[in-house]
């Protein structure tokens, strides 16, 4: 598969590869790619390559910053989805008993830049944000006071 659109690659530490496999493969439905058993696993994160590396000593709590009165991890990654895909992931995460650090909610409701967002921890404590904009043109709008 080739793509004219660049894809990102992200490697991150986990303390349990099987727990990472269950979360990213089982809950988030990310297909697995290559792996080096006992060391790392590639996942197709909606067209982007993420790699869970076994590195328990690098798993630690992230620094947090306040956004909308909520403690948002300064270090996080995630996806901007369409609204219905965001709702499906929200529902899958809830059904799986995921550890939300910011429960799903709507920012700027009824205003320009309206967006759904949520933050969840993977089994190793890595923070992921999933968001959706009502109007995708607002993703990079400078008129919004957007954090993260």
TrEMBL record:
PANTHER family: PTHR39434, VOC DOMAIN-CONTAINING PROTEIN
Protein name: VOC family protein
Domain of life, source organism: Bacteria
Domain VOC: 6-133
InterPro entries: Glyas_Bleomycin-R_OHBP_Dase, Glyas_Fos-R_dOase_dom, VOC_core
């Amino acid at each position: 598969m080739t793509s004219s659109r660049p894809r990102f690659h992200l490697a991150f530490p986990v303390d349990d590869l099987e727990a990472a496999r269950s979360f990213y493969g089982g809950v988030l439905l990310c297909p697995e790619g290559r792996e080096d058993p006992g060391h790392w696993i590639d996942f197709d994160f909606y067209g982007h390559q993420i790699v869970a590396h076994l590195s328990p000593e690098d798993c630690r709590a992230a620094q947090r910053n306040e956004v909308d009165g909520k403690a948002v991890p300064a270090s996080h990654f995630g996806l901007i989805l369409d609204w219905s895909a965001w709702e499906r992931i929200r529902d899958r995460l809830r059904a799986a008993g995921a550890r939300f650090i910011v429960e799903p909610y709507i920012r700027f409701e009824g205003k320009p830049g309206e967006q759904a967002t949520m933050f969840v921890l993977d089994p190793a404590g890595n923070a992921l944000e999933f968001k959706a904009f009502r109007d995708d043109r607002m993703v990079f709008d400078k008129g919004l006071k957007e954090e993260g």
